[in-house]
Amino acid sequence: MSVRKSVIVLYRLCWVTFLAMVISFSVHASFPYWLTWVPAAAAFALVLAAGRKARAAAAAPRPAVEVGAPVSGRWTALNSPADKVPSHGVHAYGQTYAIDIVAEPESEGEGRSSRPAFRRLWPVARRNHHFPAFGAPLLAVADGTVVHASHGRRDHLSRNSIPALIYLMLIEGSVRGVLGPGSVVGNHLVLDLGDGTYAMYAHVRRGSLRVRAGEAVRAGQILAECGNSGNSTEPHVHFQLMDDPDLGVAIGIPFTWHGIGVPGNGETFMAGGTSDVRLVPESGAAQVL
To answer: Which helix or strand (DSSP H or E) is residue 100 part of?
Structure first.
C-alpha cells in the first residue's frame, strides 16, 4: 500500500474511532470525555499533512499533458485552472487542475445561449432536460484503457438557485463528503492514458455508459453522456487529469486540449475535429460545482 493510500485509510479510521467513542461515551461514560477528541485531532493532522504534500506537488507540477477535448460543440469553461490553481479551491480528489464546462448552444435566431440562467429564488430547481449539456456525448480524450466506469447514481434536479445552492453546500454536499469521493463526483469514468496519467470524467448520466472497466478505447470514441449526479449544480462536464486512478490519493496533472489550450473562466470554445478553437469570453457566467 502506498504512503498516500495509508494516510487516507488512517484518516477514515480516525473518524470511525471518533464516532464510536462518542456513541460509547453517551451510553456509558467509562473514560474521560476529552479522549474522544484525540482521534478527531489525529484526523485533522493527517489532512494537514496530506494537504502540504499536495501543495508541494502543485508547486512543482509535471508538464501539461496534451489531449483532445472530452466533448464536441459549443461549450463554456468555468472553474478553470487557467485562472486559479487549485481550480476548485482544493487539491483533494486530484482536482488541482480540474475544469468544469457547460454546453451553451445558441438559441435559434436569437444569438444567445439556450442554457437556463442562475436564479435567486424561483424556480428553485429545474429538470435536467432544460440544460443543453444533459445527454451530450463524452469522448475519449486519447487512446487508453477504462479503469473505472460507474453509472448507477441518480441524476438529481438542478441546484442553480440560492435556496437550492444552500441546500447543496450545507446538507447534500456535507453528506457526500462523509461518504467519500465516489459520492462527491457521482457517476464517473477513469481512463488510463499511459505514462502514469489518468483522465477522469465526473457527473456522468445514469445508465449512459457505453464502455466498461478493462476495455480499450480510441481517441474520440463515445464513452457515456453528460449528467448531473454527485455534487453538481447543473448538468456539466467535470474533467481532470491525475497521477493515480484512486481519487482518494490522486494528485492533479495539468492538461491542454488540442487546438484549444486551456479555456479560462467564461471563455467559450468550439470543440470537434478541425473546428477546435477558443472564442470570446462570455459575460456574467455563473459558477458551477
So the answer is: strand 99-103
Where does residue 19 fall: left (phi above 0), alpha (psi -120 to 50 degrees), or beta otherwise? alpha
Residue 190 to residue 12: CA distance in whole angstroms? 23
- Amino acid (1-letter code) at residue 50: A
Grid cell for residue 176: 457526500
Asked if residue 106 lies in contact with residue 112, where contact means CB atoms within 8 angstroms, the answer is yes
Domain ranges of the chain: 3-59, 65-281
Annotation: CATH topology of 65-281: Glucose Permease (Domain IIA) (2.70.70)
Q: What dihedral angle (degrees, nearest 10) is formed by the CA atoms of 15, 92, 266, 136?
A: -90
Of 42-56, 87-101, 180-194, the range with the lowest mean pLDDT is: 42-56
Write down the pLDDT at residue 285.
Answer: 47
Helix then strand then coil, in percent of the chain rounded to 5, is: 30, 25, 45
Higher pLDDT, 167 or 25: 25
